[in-house]
Amino acid sequence: MRLDASLNFNLSPLFKASFTAGVINVTDGSNVINRYYKVNSKGSNDAVQIDNQSLGLTPNIRLAEVIHRDLVQY
Q: So what's the pLDDT on residue 67?
């Protein structure tokens, strides 16, 4: 599950900004994102299952600034 929030605001007529905060894997669940098998290295012909797990609770933030190019005078 993912949870996001975003704020947009004008800093001036020329500059606009946005702030986004979010959390990925809110429930902190364990998810297998890749599974593969390899031969046991101890001389037997047994296969060993390898599971790659997803990250747990992961917070993210982003701050972006946008310049209105049509207002810029060259």
A: 81
